[in-house]
């Protein structure tokens, strides 16, 4: 019994040391991109496997290429294709902005002319989340 109690106490001390070292390491900013590659487009961090230039995103696929043109106000705006990127997490989630689809009908059931049919092609490397999608 005494040995078991001592082992548990030692284990907790060891875990405490690891956690405190991890907390100290979290305070040190690590680069998000590959060495020599830009890691931001405006206010949006661009972590690897995404990248802004050839050689900075995952090899053999353009799915991870992010463009960084300036918008009409002259601010950098990250894009994937023609879709605005608002965030890329290091956990692998990319957040985008796009128009909501409208499917409206008049009283007789005829579709209105101003209906929109936006589409999203996620590419072979991605899936669309069925739980994280929401309107702002």
Give a verbal description of the structure:
This protein is α+β, with helices and mostly antiparallel strands and 136 residues long. Helix content is 18%, strand content 12%. The chain is built from 1 helix and 5 strands, in the order H-E-E-E-E-E. The strands form 2 sheets. The chain has a 3-stranded antiparallel sheet, with no helix packed on it. The chain has a two-stranded antiparallel sheet with strand order 1-2. A hairpin with a 2-residue loop joins strand 3 and strand 4. The longest helix is centred in the first third of the chain and has 25 residues. The N and C termini lie far apart (58 Å).
- Tell me about the biggest sheet? 3 strands, antiparallel
Helix and strand run: HEEEEE
- Adjacency order of strands in the biggest sheet: 3-4-5
List unreliable stretches of 5+ residues.
1-28
Strand content: 5-15%
Number-wise, the strands total: 5
Structural class determined from secondary elements = alpha+beta
What's the alpha carbon Rg, rounded to whole Å? 23 Å
Cα distance, first to last residue?
58 Å
Helix content: 10-25%
Q: In DSSP terms, counting alpha (H) and pi (I) runs of 4 or more, how many helices? A: 1
Morphology: elongated
Give average pLDDT, whole number. Answer: 75
List the helices and strands and how they pair.
Blueprint: H1 2-26, E1 40-41, E2 44-45, E3 79-80, E4 83-88, E5 94-97
Antiparallel strand pairs: 1-2, 3-4, 4-5
